[in-house]
């Protein structure tokens, strides 16, 4: 079993280049299915979720090869729209294959999405989209089938703001007959990135980045080239690292506007932030103030950043409250932080933190990708050694997590737990 060992690291200083966004890349790679010619994508990170897509692509006949930092995709030989349920459920964004393959082939058989487990992650809005466009959806035990003789443009109102279903609606509607209008659409940068890419291929999507998106269906999509936007979630976590023990961290190749809410809250807790055109520097002052965080859909404070922010707030003297309204049960990291000595209570959709209590290294388990970042940051601030298992969750979203954190001075190593070591470690788990 792989694990990460984190040691108290003092001040973190340095700069890191931020890779392309996981959540954009997962949409772009599948959007490429819709093209009728070769597509080249840049900025796609080397993460486990992308490897799963590569596996699915091989199964369905989509050629996908990596050449010097670019992924070249040939969707012309796709011969199957049946996706292995095991592969579909080993990451979240497999639902994009449902929208894209439905649009291109009129039928898709696919397993349910997996990804981080926040107790409830419904896909009712995705299904609503498919049905509105004229498809039938049949649900079986471990897969579902979506099919339509013809997809026809429709008027679709989302009952809740969802980035996944907004992107999926664009994928499904882009080749539908006539006009589709999406209302109460998500305005996330990843939605805009997917629309920009599809338009580059010849799609006619208007208004992405606002709550109303209009899609005029087209019957053919060219090949083309696109570069994924930088990962605002990885960038946010690195900037927070500067606040842990009063260091200075610069993230390069970012779009600062995508991090507005995060930077505003970092300012409130006492981290000084300076933005350039494509870089941001965070200066920790060594003294953090408690605050209140409420997550919201973009441009609100990202739910994916509340977990690393919680690690930071453990260092801020006083009472902080972190409320997650997007995923009210996204708090599996709290029990693990308590193992490090954190004073943190859960009530309904909020974590109540008494910050400034010294942390002590222990054995903790990452249950999802950002819980992993949270535990990693907490481990760097805790006395002694922290053992973090559940590395597979972290590797779903982070390319070279050890190398990039080490480059800013973090004392981290990836290890393999062997039988001799286990008795020495087991007392930490309790
Ligand atoms: C692969 C990917 O891009 N993952 C991101 C995506 O997940 P994901 O696409 O799953 O999240 P959504 O944006 O769809 O979810 C937003 C909210 O809508 C609800 N909802 C969603 C779909 C649906 O059919 N019905 C419904 O009720 C969800 O429970 C949640 O409360 O956006 C989340 C919210 O920014 C991020 O945390 C994830 O990192
Ligand atoms: C929740 C996340 O991932 P996913 O939606 O892929 O589970 C995340 O990236 O924080």
Topology:
Blueprint: E1 2-7, E2 13-17, H1 22-31, E3 39-42, H2 48-60, E4 63-67, E5 70-74, H3 85-88, H4 95-105, E6 107-111, H5 124-132, E7 136-139, E8 143-147, E9 155-157, H6 163-173, E10 179-183, H7 189-200, E11 204-206, E12 212-216, E13 224-227, H8 232-244, E14 248-252, H9 260-269, E15 272-275, E16 279-283, E17 292-294, H10 303-313, E18 318-323, H11 332-339, E19 343-347, E20 350-355, E21 363-365, H12 369-381, E22 385-389, H13 391-397, H14 401-406, E23 411-416, H15 422-429
Fill in the keyword field for this structure.
single chain, 430 residues, alpha+beta, UDP-n-acetylglucosamine1-carboxyvinyl-transferase, Chain, 2 domains, four-stranded mixed beta sheet, 15 helices, binds uridine-diphosphate-N-acetylglucosamine, binds phosphoenolpyruvate, UDP_GlcNAc_COvinyl_MurA, pyruvate, EC 2.5.1.7, cell cycle, transferase
């Amino acid at each position: 079993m792989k694990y990460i060992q984190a040691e108290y690291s003092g001040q973190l200083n340095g700069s890191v280049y931020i890779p392309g966004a996981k959540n954009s890349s997962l949409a772009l790679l599948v959007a490429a299915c819709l093209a009728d010619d070769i597509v080249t994508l840049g900025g796609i990170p080397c993460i486990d979720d992308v490897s799963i897509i590569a596996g699915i692509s091989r199964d369905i006949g989509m050629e996908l090869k990596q050449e010097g930092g670019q992924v070249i995709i040939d969707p012309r030989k796709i011969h199957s729209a049946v996706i292995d349920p095991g592969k579909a459920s080993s990451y979240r964004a497999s639902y994009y294959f449902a929208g894209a393959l439905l649009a291109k082939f009129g039928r898709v058989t696919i397993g349910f999405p997996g990804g981080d487990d926040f107790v409830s992650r419904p896909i009712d809005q995705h299904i609503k989209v498919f049905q509105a466009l004229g498809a039938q959806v049949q649900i079986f035990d471990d897969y579902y089938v979506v099919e339509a003789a013809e997809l026809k443009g429709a008027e679709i109102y989302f009952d809740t703001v969802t980035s996944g279903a907004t992107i999926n609606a664009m994928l499904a509607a882009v080749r539908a007959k006539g006009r589709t209008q999406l209302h109460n659409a998500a305005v996330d940068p990843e939605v805009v990135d997917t629309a920009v890419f599809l338009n580059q291929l010849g799609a006619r999507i208007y208004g992405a980045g606002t709550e109303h998106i209009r899609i005029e269906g087209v019957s053919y999509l060219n090949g083309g080239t696109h570069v994924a936007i930088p990962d605002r979630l990885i960038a946010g976590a690195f900037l927070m690292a500067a606040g842990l023990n009063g260091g200075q961290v610069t993230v390069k190749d970012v779009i600062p506007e995508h991090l507005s809410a995060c930077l505003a809250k970092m300012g409130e807790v006492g981290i000084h932030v300076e933005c350039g055109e494509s870089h941001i520097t965070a200066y920790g002052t060594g003294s953090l103030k408690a605050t209140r965080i409420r997550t919201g859909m973009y441009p609100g404070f990202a739910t994916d950043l509340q977990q690393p922010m919680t690690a930071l707030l453990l260092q801020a003297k006083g009472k902080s409250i972190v409320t997650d309204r997007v995923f009210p049960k996204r708090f599996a990291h709290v029990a693990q932080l308590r193992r490090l000595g954190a004073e943190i209570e859960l009530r309904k959709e909020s974590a109540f933190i008494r910050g400034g209590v010294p942390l002590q290294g222990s054995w903790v388990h990452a249950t999802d990708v950002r819980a992993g970042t949270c535990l990693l940051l907490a481990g760097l601030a805790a006395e002694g050694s922290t053992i973090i298992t559940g590395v597979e969750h972290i590797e779903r979203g982070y390319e070279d997590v050890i190398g990039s954190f080490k480059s800013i001075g973090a004392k981290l190593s990836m290890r393999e737990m062997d039988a001799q070591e286990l008795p020495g470690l087991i007392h930490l788990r309790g």
